[in-house]
Design brief:
199 residues; Jelly Rolls; 5-stranded antiparallel β-sheet; alpha+beta
């Protein structure tokens, strides 16, 4: 696992073993995760989504504490995964990073509590699975419009984004900040420290 440029986000590129029968890789390994992140991954929920080409999901996040950390991979097809720093007071506030996740390299991303997450499906029937540290709680769930021009995320230009009504109506990052909906870098860091100290 290697850290990305946004504190609290990592990418994991496993070794893939292939032979005449097919392929095998370790999608998640607890000891490697703990060694890299400094804590274990509490598993409260596992999600699976299948998307047509061009589907754009996100940018989603949950209130901190407890937030919702995610470990995400694409088991079929390909997606452009994006992590957005929406934590007020963060040195990289408003910055984003993309990672291609697909069923060839079998990479995964981990994003800690307080970071925004989304992805665009690059192929029909792209299937994404993710492990979540907390279960879905509607009252704590929020979103940022993934087409916010101020964020200017570099989604593929050759695809027409297909969004849900909820994601289309989501506020921009600036609007969410004005409404007091964003987590703070300080609160997220303090929460992560409390998780590490409880290990």
């Amino acid at each position: 696992m290697r850290p990305l440029g946004i504190e609290g986000a990592w990418v994991d590129m496993p070794k893939v073993f292939a032979d005449s029968r097919g392929r095998f890789h370790e999608w998640f390994k607890g000891d490697r995760f703990h060694e890299s992140i400094g804590q274990g991954l509490q598993l409260a929920q596992a999600n699976c989504s299948r998307s047509i080409r061009g589907t754009l999901r996100g940018i989603h996040y949950a209130s901190v504490p407890p937030g919702q950390a995610k470990y995400v991979t694409c088991v079929r097809g390909a997606v452009l995964d994006v992590i957005v720093d929406i934590r007020t007071g963060s040195p990289t506030f408003g910055k984003w990073e993309t990672v291609r996740l697909d069923d060839t390299t079998h990479g995964s991303v981990y994003l800690s509590e307080g970071l925004g997450h989304g992805f665009m499906s690059l192929e029909d029937d792209s299937t994404v699975v993710y492990l979540c540290s907390q279960g879905f709680a509607p009252q704590r769930e929020h979103g940022i419009n993934p087409l916010d021009p101020a964020l200017a995320i570099a989604w593929p230009e050759n695809l027409t984004p297909v969004l849900s009504e909820k994601d289309t109506a989501a506020p921009t990052l600036a609007e969410a900040e004005r409404q007091g909906l964003l987590p703070s870098f300080e609160d997220c860091s303090a929460y992560r420290r409390s998780l590490m100290s409880s290990v």
